């Protein structure tokens, strides 16, 4: 308890500020690697590597959570490559190789307005940011499936050998909107693109309502990073840490 109430020295405060810069860099690189289809590199460089952390790692979307790094890799890397080869197969004159994955496609991811809290013991941190993106998958006939994407991004980070790593990630889509279509012309029952979100999120290990865009940021207040001393799994960005508004309020 004494450590929890201790005032940081000026040098320690500087290091905490630098921790936040490194965490911004970490999540920004994750956005760029995802946009550039460098997904294996993202796993190798940015995600946890220790056995215990790998087993408890998670990647969440609106419809649930992939638990354990092996399941995350199966979705984030392997399934994404399969979708890439499927899109590439439409181009008969293009070699079906990994180097050509993404041919005729464009993906953009950003990480805006980050807010970060580093734990009092300096071992973990919590992050929230916003991803304003674009997904465009072209076809040989010149048409494309193009959508604007908007999602809140929550993350639990942990130090491994003095380096910040992604441990838990939750990508909560607010909207996936087709390009060139008036917002007013979208399905009034699901104007935020429920079908597109389901396709993007795949089939998580733990099926759950991790986020429902129809309720308009109802979770943000409870999921907002707040000052804390040590990691608490009950407040993590995982299935175990789902806010009370989802456990006893909206969904019973």
Structure description:
The chain has 252 residues and is of the alpha+beta class. It has a single domain (10-251), classed as Roll (Nuclear Transport Factor 2, Chain: A). It has helices at residues 2-5, 10-35, 39-46, 51-56, 69-88, 194-201, 220-223, 244-249; strands at 58-61, 64-67, 105-108, 112-118, 124-138, 144-160, 163-178, 206-207. Strands 1, 2, 3, 4, 5, 6, 7 and 8 form an eight-stranded mixed β-sheet that branches.
- Helix proportion range: 25-40%
Rg over C-alpha atoms, rounded to the nearest angstrom: 19 Å
**Arithmetic mean of pLDDT:** 90
Structural class: alpha+beta
| CATH topology name | Nuclear Transport Factor 2, Chain: A
Largest sheet: 8 strands, mixed
CATH class: Alpha Beta
Share in β-strands:
25-35%
End-to-end C-alpha gap: 37 Å
Q: Summed up, what is this model?
A:
With 252 residues, this protein is an alpha+beta fold. It is 33% helix and 27% strand.
Topology:
Layout: H1 2-5, H2 10-35, H3 39-46, H4 51-56, E1 58-61, E2 64-67, H5 69-88, E3 105-108, E4 112-118, E5 124-138, E6 144-160, E7 163-178, H6 194-201, E8 206-207, H7 220-223, H8 244-249
Parallel strand pairs: 1-7
Antiparallel strand pairs: 1-2, 2-8, 3-5, 4-5, 5-6, 6-7
Helix pairs in contact: 2-3
């Amino acid at each position: 308890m004494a450590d929890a109430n201790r005032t940081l020295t000026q040098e320690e405060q500087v290091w905490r500020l630098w921790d936040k810069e490194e965490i911004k860099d970490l999540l920004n690189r994750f956005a760029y690697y995802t946009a550039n289809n460098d997904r294996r590199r993202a796993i190798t460089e940015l995600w946890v590597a220790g056995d215990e952390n790998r087993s408890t790692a998670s990647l969440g979307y609106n419809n649930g959570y992939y638990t354990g790094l092996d399941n995350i890799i199966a979705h984030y890397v392997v399934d994404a490559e399969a979708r890439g080869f499927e899109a590439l197969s439409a181009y008969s004159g293009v070699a079906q190789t990994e180097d050509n994955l993404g041919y005729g496609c464009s993906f953009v991811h950003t990480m805006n307005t980050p807010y970060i809290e580093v734990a009092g013991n300096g071992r973990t941190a919590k992050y929230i940011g916003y991803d304003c993106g674009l997904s465009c998958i072209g076809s040989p006939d010149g048409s494309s499936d193009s959508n604007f994407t908007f999602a809140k991004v929550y993350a639990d980070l942990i130090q491994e050998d003095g380096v910040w790593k992604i441990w838990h990630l939750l990508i909560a889509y607010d909207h996936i909107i087709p390009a060139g279509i008036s917002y007013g012309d979208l399905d009034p029952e699901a104007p935020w693109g429920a079908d597109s979100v389901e396709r993007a999120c795949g089939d998580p290990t733990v099926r759950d309502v991790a986020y429902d865009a129809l309720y308009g940021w109802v979770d943000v207040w409870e999921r907002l990073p707040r000052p804390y001393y040590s990691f608490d799994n009950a407040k993590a960005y995982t299935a175990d840490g789902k806010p009370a508004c989802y456990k006893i309020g909206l969904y019973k």
